[in-house]
Amino acid sequence: MSDDGQHDTPGTGSNGAGDNSLLPIGPQEPLDNPGVPEHQPRPTDVDPALERRAERQVAAMFVVGAVMALAFCVAYFLFDPHPETGETALGVGASNLALGVTLGLSLLLIGLGAIQWARKLMADHEMIEYRHSAASTVEDRQEAIAAFQAGSEESGLGRRKLIRNSLLASMAMLGLPAVVLLRDLGPLPGVKLEQTVWRRGMRVVSDVSGRAIRPSEVPIGQLINAEPAVFFEHAEEFEGNELLNEKAKAAVIVVRMPPEEYTPYPARRDWDVEGILCYSKICPHVGCPISLYEQQTHHVLCPCHQSTFDLANNGVVLFGPASRNLPQLPLGVDGEGYLIAMSGFQEPVGASFWERG
Amino acid sequence: MSSSTAARSKAGAASRSTAGVVTWLDERLGIGALTKKQLRKVFPDHWSFMLGEIALWSFVILLLTGTFLSFWFKPSMAEVEYMGSYANLRGLHMSEAYASTLDLSFDVRGGLLMRQMHHWSANLFLASMTIHMLRVFFTGAFRKPRELNWMIGLALLMLGIIEGFAGYSLPDDLLSGTGLRIAQGLMLSIPVVGSYISFFVFGGEFPGDDFIPRLYTVHVLLVPGILLALITAHMLLLVYHKHTQFPGPGRTNNNVVGFPLMPVYMAKAGGFFFIVFGVTALMGGLLQINPIWMYGPYNPAEVTAGSQPDWYMGWLEGGLRIMPNWETNLWGYTLSWNVLIPGVLLLGVLFALLAFYPFIERWITGDDREHHLLERPRNAPTRTAFGVAGMTAYALLWIAGGNDILAYEFGLSLNAITYFMRVAIFVVPVLAFIITRRWCLSLQRHDREVVLHGYETGVIVRSPDGSYAEIHRPINPVRAYELTMHEQHTPVEAPAASDANGVPAPAQGKERLRSRLSHFWYADDVSKPTKEELEAAAHHATNGSHALEDGHGPASGNGAHLGIETSGIVGGQDFGLEQKPKAP
Ligand code: HEM
Ligand code: FES
Fold first, then answer.
1. Does the structure show a pLDDT above 50 at B31?
2. How many whole angstroms from B32 Cα to the centroid of ligand 2?
3. Do residues B111 and A100 lie in contact, with contact meaning Cβ atoms separated by under 8 Å?
């Protein structure tokens, strides 16, 4: 990077126009360039009293900055960050407040002091530096090209096609190990996206307590968040985050509505139990858990992008960016009178994907 | 010894020791030549040049606070029982990542401050980069030779968005987990390989065990490393090209007028670092951000209503919200346009458009020269109009990202807002384009008027014959120069349709297209006053047809009605004050 650092100060006769013309300036300017204005002394340049005052101001800012840094240390040991014992202020806690304010003021004062110093006391002569075209000179460029050609000539890269091509081939082949190495980042999807843990006969249980649900306990108009019973009965069988993975697919909502308000598809006529219906909780848009239920209309709304589904009409999309209906889980009752699934979901739940069909 | 001699000998000793240090270093590093050039390098001054500086300093603050956080944060999805001091969550099962973020917030002194400063400076980083980019766009600073630096800047912005998203996904709270789930949904929408990408990224099914540790490496090593390299390149190119400057007296395309790096810029830029740092610390101390303890640990079956991402993700969220629910089924395979277009393609399209913009403009205008003087937005009406149209589209998407909040706050129908946005996103930017372009042209016309006839004082006078008129006063010569020194653009003309022998010229269709675009670009520009017009205006005025202007007496007598002051009204002093550089 070259740069001749040529400088010029105004008032020495230069109008700043310079003569090394970098750019063919367009049509003639209608007015002459008045040149960089004369330097005007600031009050602090001419009045020693003002100058001393500015000096004291700057120093005072630095000193108070130092005091604030000390205050920070005091606050660090004085306040407890625990929410129960620590006093809260402005909702962020006294410790956080005191630390933030002292640190902030300390930094701020150093900054303000430096800028005040630059503005009031440092020399403020505007300087002129000339620019050069970003390009190197034509000779330099030609020499560069010549050097490159000489190097390339001496290597014989152009002539020895066999070497060149075999080299390119082996370099290209190195891309494969780079990709293959990443193979163990994860298993292949297989059918995992299409399956949940729901099976025929699995109880539908409350998601908080894990209690099985009797139809009589489901009031009209209420939405119950539910999960498959395995999550509670056999939680130890899930390793690591497997439980979360399965939950992310298997969460369901259970609602009850008067049977006359409900119009199932013919194939789904026996999917309810006394007007109790069960749908996937996972939005078919991009997978948020659906949560907002409007009991008069039986609509549920996804809080993420507001897709709205009609639970009284097989979970069809009424509005929003989701393009698929909310998958429904057929319900039944087991021998002991608890709600169970009559099968797994008959379609993949959650966001669409290529192989989904 | 008198005190002045003492001072002199002290100064002498200081300069001797400076020389000693420099010599020692130079003998080992050869820094003399470089330092000679760069230490007094000139930087021009303008408030808008501070935007990039805020971004730079925010990045430094992110490095400092982020390093602090990394001493306590545990990037692990292993389940633990929380036993820390936040009573409301004690005894709950959660990931180690979430538990350690709670510890940072409640058990590490200063931890919450560092978390909040980290998050605030992330927002500041992205906001200042975005506005800095707009400044560069609207003033034409991206033109040759700075196209590559423009592209580096875009890469920084894109990586910054990714880095921010990665960052706020780390604590593994309910809000960030929901964001990750949406991100996984976007991955799944990618044709053919979507489910494979999702499985590879998450190490299996969502959310799995692997993701947070992987994201952590991306957040603290991979992306910051690339950012650091790109920022370095950005700065080196800035030094090499030298900063652009706004036009003004003495400021030309061949020079740069301003203050030297040492001492003025070191003090100003260095001081400014402390100011940005201080403001960030005050924000961290006073303004709560991302209180993860209020959201609870991530649970894929739960969600909070009204969940919102950080502001810089808002426009993507808006795209997802207003996209119609199109999905195509082809031979048993699914293409989810409803997710793919707003979630994946939109980002790519926006950045591709921005990246190629300098080359598109350069081709249309046929302008291959170097530009170091900034253009006022009004003097590039078509560019400005494109910029405003783009900003409008961005703003609409961003508003759409909060459509539920809008509906709630203003009692509007959510559906109505969404349908409106689906139309508005296409119509309003076009309107914004047309209005902006006209506005720029009328500002150009106004500039021309002011130069020729002076500015309107707002003072209405009645002349002896009973007519009313407004007094125009001349503007000062510096202002007049500033208003007339911009370039007058001329459209590219297509070459003759066929050469002398009647053979059609090759690539003629392309040239015709270019000429047509170039005419669209420039043809409406208001021509700036020529020397002759200025003289004619002066002549016209002195001949008394603007008799009212004589209201201000003999001081501006002969020839003063050029619209530009010629006499001592604006003396050297006034002149100097107006040119005084603004404080940072
Ligand atoms: C441009 C750069 C960066 C951006 C935009 C960024 C952004 C963020 C954001 C928004 C968060 C969430 C904070 C919260 O509210 O809890 C975060 C968390 C975190 N960041 Fe960064 N960051 C950046 C660089 C770094 C660097 C360089 C490091 C480490 C050297 C780092 C370490 C961390 C850690 C450990 C966390 C998790 C702790 C926590 O969330 O409290 N970050 N980052
Ligand atoms: S995830 Fe439900 S609407 Fe987007």
1. yes
2. 62
3. no
CATH fold group of domain A204-356:
Rieske Iron-sulfur Protein (2.102.10)
Q: Strands A316-319, A339-341: parallel, antiparallel or unpaired by DSSP?
A: unpaired
Nearest to B481 among A31, A96, A317 (CB): A31
Whether residues B557 and B464 share a domain: the answer is yes
Distance from CA of B365 to the nearest CA of A (A): 14
Q: Residue B332: pLDDT band by 50, 70, 90 thresholds?
A: confident
The answer, yes or no, to whether residue A53 has pLDDT greater than 60, is yes
Same domain, B467 and B369: no
Least confident of A190-194, A261-265, B572-576: B572-576
pLDDT tens-digit series, residues B459-512:
888 888 888 888 888 888 888 888 988 888 888 887 766 655 666 666 678 888
Indicate if the pLDDT at residue B10 is higher than 80.
no
B366: contact with A, CB 8 A cutoff: no
* Residues A299 and A291 sit within 8 Å (Cβ to Cβ): no
Q: Are residues B30 and B102 located together in one domain of the fold?
A: no
Q: Count structural domains, chain B.
A: 3
Ligand 1 atom closest to Cα of residue B290: 15
Q: Which of helix, strand or coil describes residue B98?
A: helix
The helix/strand/coil state of A33 is coil
Ligand 2 centroid – CA A329 distance (Å): 20
Amino acid at A331: L
- For an interface test with B, which of A204, A304, A325, A349 has the most B Cβ atoms less than 10 Å from its Cβ? A304
Domain assignment present for B134:
yes
Q: Which value, in Å, is the radius of gyration of the alpha carbons in chain B? A: 30
CA-CA distances (angstroms) from residue B199 to A179, A245, B332, B360?
15, 12, 21, 39
Residue partners of A37: CB distance under 8 A and separation at least 6: A10, B249, B250, B478, B572, B575, B576, B578, B579
pTM of the model: 0.89
Q: Would you say residue B521 lies in a domain? A: no
Query: By the CB < 8 Å criterion, does B237 face chain A?
Result: no
A352 to B327: CB separation less than 8 angstroms, yes or no: yes
| pLDDT digit string, tens, across residues B273-285 | 999 999 999 999 9
State if residue B65 touches ligand 1 by the CB under 6 angstroms criterion.
no
- Which pLDDT score is estimated for A281? 96
A129 strand-pairing partners = A7, B256
Pairwise CA distance, residues A22 & A25, whole Å: 9
* Chain B residues with CB-CB distance to A81 below 8 A: 105-112
Confidence of residue A87 (pLDDT cuts 50, 70, 90): low
Cα nearest neighbour of B573 on chain A: A40
Residues B131 and B6 in one domain: no
- In the listed set B374, B390, B424, which residue is the last one of a domain according to the structure? B374
Same structural domain for residues B46 and B169?
yes
Which CATH number belongs to the domain containing residue B166 in this structure?
Answer: 1.20.810.10
Identify the pLDDT of residue A46: 93
How many helices and strands (H and E) does chain A possess?
7, 13
Q: Is the model's pLDDT at A7 over the cut of 60?
A: no
Atom 18 of ligand 1, nearest CA residue: B167
Q: Between B414 and B125, whose confidence is greater?
A: B125
Give the domain extent around B30: 1-40
Same domain, B25 and B137: no
Q: Are both B49 and B133 inside the same structural domain?
A: yes
Give the per-residue pLDDT at A19.
Answer: 39
Query: Within this chain, do residues B206 and B343 fall inside the same structural domain, yes or no?
Result: yes
Hey, whose CA ends up nearest to atom 3 of ligand 2? A305
Residue boundaries of the structural domains of chain A: 1-24+31-134, 138-185, 204-356
Residues B366/B492, Cβ–Cβ less than 8 Å:
yes
Q: How far is CA B6 from CA A221, A267, B9, B17, in A?
A: 93, 104, 5, 17
CA of B182 to the centre of ligand 2 (A): 8
